[in-house]
Structures are given as structure tokens and as C-alpha cells.
Amino acid sequence: MTGKMSEVKIAQRKEKCENCTKQCNKKQGDDGAGPDPESQEVNGQVNKGPQLLLSACLSCDGCLSEEDTLRISQQNLEEVERVLALNKKCDTSKHRVVVASVCPQSLPFFAVQFGLDITEAAQKLCSFLKSVGVTFVFDTTVAAGFSILETQKEFIQRYRRRHHDSHALPMFTSSCPGWIRYAERVLGSLVTPHICTARSPQQIMGCLVKDYFSKQQKLSPEKVYHMVVAPCFDKKLEAVREEFYNSLMETRDVDCVLTSKEIYHLMEKRRTSVEELDSVPLDQVLGEGGEEALMRHDGRGSEGFLEHVFKHTAKELFGLDVQEITYKTLRNRDFQEVTLERDGETLLQFAAIYGFRNIQTLVHRMRKGRVPYQLVEVLSCPGGCLSGRGQAESEGSGRIDKALVQQMEEVYSSLPVRLPELNPILNTLYQDWLQGQDSPQACRLLHTEFRGQSQSHTQPPHMEW
């Protein structure tokens, strides 16, 4: 893989991947060093050895096929610049309309870098993207709303069939591609039947742009080049999954994913100063006039699947209105649980589990049948999406910039919260685009399928659990 795709520096590739040293003897480099016991986790105690992300393990050349590597090699800034340059040179009939979708977790990065509030930063970012040739700029909150609503619905269905379907619960969230790749490639059938089938916000946005929006613009999908700005590198892996490629139209739902820092580096390369940029409102998927205020969903810097499903389930199944959720920290800040109780009885028990070390603890408990949770929100990045390495990593050191993350958390929390159920755009799109909430169209475009791949194909023989 190219250096642009890797989340770790070349030197770090010579180190072992966290606790994977106990299962995988594959070296990250050619230094000939053996497993470092200081980089392992023993009996639940986390040590202070060198830390690499789960995504670094999954993105190494040992797990990617040549075809994967080729596809991902096109997920870079040079490819976007090539498309933009071709648009300037070629005949207008051959132009591709460039659409950029910005994840809400990326906006706080630009707000901090620009020294502006998040709304003004979003407008400056929109101005810059349009100045380099992007035609439409959206934020992906509406797609996240779809994903949350479909996740809520699926959880209720799974809960109701829990007594006769051993795979119904616990349900694991499906929005994090690092977690999904790990589940499919390493864990297989132990976990994949438990993963929610709702597509991630990124891939729902891909469908929305290539299916709905392209029709509104009277364009065929292959005439639209869809770029996503995201906080983490793993989204690049998600974009090249086979099920998100339309072989008939020869187009992907998401053509390219760029991280927040890659866009910021493009601004530096073009020597663009924030002061010289106009404030341009983001575009609306429905194409209606007027500026839509930026909103966020509940949650600690991610899309808040746990909180939304928890509150919805409490109301739907038990008639309880939950206004505030209290997290109980267990192992660390990235391993927390939430419970719903009534008259001394525990009705719901959910968990938020972030980071590979905590995910491993979850997997070990799963193997022993000791997972008490009905739903687990799983994210591979410690700290959640705001801490994605595509924006939170310090230049040079390769470590997470904690001060930057804290600033981004403060900025993100300044956005007003809106329940997806109350978003009129979603209600309109359910009817106009999907022909109803439970239609075959909604099922096809808002859901996907996760399968454990054969061990002989995906795991080296020395990897055991």
C-alpha cells in the first residue's frame, strides 16, 4: 500500500500490532524482532507498550489482496485532482459532476484549524471545495439519520425474536468499517450474524447521491464523481467493498474518500487562506432554497447509535421516556455501559466499546457466552470518530493529539441536537425516494449483508483465537 493510505508511519510498521502479537506472528516489517510482551494485554490489564490501531493491522499488506490494494490506491488526493483537471480539459459532454459529502465529525477539525465556529467553518470549507471544481457540497447528517432509524427498527425486531433466534442478540452496530472488516476477516460467524444490517452513513449517502440526487439532476450515476470527506482512513476500505459497486453502471456509490487532513493539505498546497474564502452555505439534497442549520445527533463525538436506540427502545417497548443517559465507566472511558431499570428489574443493558483492546475483551466474553448486553456500539478508534487518525493524529509523532481532540469535542457539542424522527427531509425522502419506510426499495438501498470469510482465505495459519 502507498504511504498515503497507511495510518501508521513506516517506522511503526516494524512494530507488532497491539494484542495481535498473541495471535498473529506476522511481522509489520523486516526487523526480525520477536513478539514484544510489553505490547500485550494480559488478564485484562492494559500495558503501556507501543500502540497501533486495529485499522493498521487490517490495512497491512498481509490482509489485503492485490485487488484490494489496487482499489484503495485510487483513494487519494491525486485521483481527485486528476478528475478535477480532466473536467477543465475535456469536452463538457464528458464532464463528471463532482459531489463532496462531508461527515459531521470532520467539521470540528476545520473549525479548530480555521479558528471559527463550526457553521462558519463549514461554509468556508464549502467555498474552498467549490473553488477547486466541486459542484455540490453536502453534509452526511441526513444519511446518518437514515442509518439510525433503520438501526432502531432492526433492534426492535431482533429483540422481539430473541427467544427463538440465538443470533438476534446481542446486536452490534455496523457504522465502523474497521470493526466490520475485523469481524468479517477474523471473527467470522461468531459475530457477523449479530451485526446490524443497516448501511453506514457514508454508504447511505453514496446511494442518496448516485441514485436519488443524480436522477434529480438528470444525470446517469457514472457521470457523478462522489467524494466523501471523513475523519478516518478506514472509510476508504469501506468505499471499495464489492457490494457498493454497480457493475451495470460501472460506478461506485462512493468514488473516493479523503480524510480531513488530506483536504487541509490540499488547501495548503493551493496556498488558500481562510480569510480570502467567501462563506458559502452547504447544498441541500432536496435542492430546496434556503440554508439548513447544521445539526448533530446524540452521542460522544460519533453518530450516537447507542443513545438513539436506547431511548427509542425504552419508549417503544417499555413506555418509558428517557431524557438523559448516564454512562457507567467500566474498564476505561472507552468501555462504558448504560442500563434501563424499573422496579429493581434491568430492562435494557447496552454498551459502548471503542478501541481494539476493548473490542478484544468483548470478543473473549462473546466466546464464553458472557455478554450481558442487548446492543453494543462498536468503534475501532479509541475515543470514537472525532479521534480518527485522518484528523486527530499529530504530525510527525503518529500519536493522537489529545488537546486537538478536546477542542473538537467542544466544537461538536456546540451543535444543536435533532432526533432523526423529527427531520422533515428524512420523511420526504422515505416517500419520494424509497416509496415508504418498509418498502423493498428501502431494504435494498439502506441495508447490506455481512459475511464471515473463509479462514483459509483470510487468516494466515498461525492466527488463532
Describe this structure in words.
The strands form 4 sheets. The protein has a 5-stranded mixed sheet, sandwiched between helices. The chain has a 4-stranded parallel sheet with strand order 4-3-6-9, sandwiched between helices. A two-stranded antiparallel ribbon has the order 1-2. The chain has 16 helices and 13 strands. The model is unreliable at about 1-55 and about 455-465 (pLDDT under 50). About 35% of the residues lie in helices and about 15% in strands. It starts with about 40 loop residues before the first strand and ends in a 7-residue tail after the last helix. The chain is α/β, with parallel strands linked by helices.
Strand content: 5-15%
**In whole angstroms, how far apart are the ends?**
27 Å
Number of strands: 13
The oligomerization state is single chain
Main sheet strand line-up: 5-13-12-11-10
Fold blueprint:
Blueprint (H helix, E strand, L loop, with lengths): L40 E2 L2 E2 L7 H5 L7 H8 L3 H13 L7 E6 L4 H8 L3 H14 L4 E4 L1 H20 L10 E2 L4 H11 L13 H16 L7 E7 L3 H6 L5 E2 L4 E2 L3 E4 H10 L35 H14 L9 E5 L2 E8 L2 E10 L1 H12 L7 E5 L22 H12 L10 H9 L7 H7 L8 H4 L7
Parallel strand pairs: 3-4, 3-6, 5-13, 6-9, 12-13
Antiparallel strand pairs: 1-2, 7-8, 10-11, 11-12
How would you sum up this structure in a few lines?
The protein is an alpha/beta fold and 465 residues long. 36% of the residues lie in helices and 13% in strands.
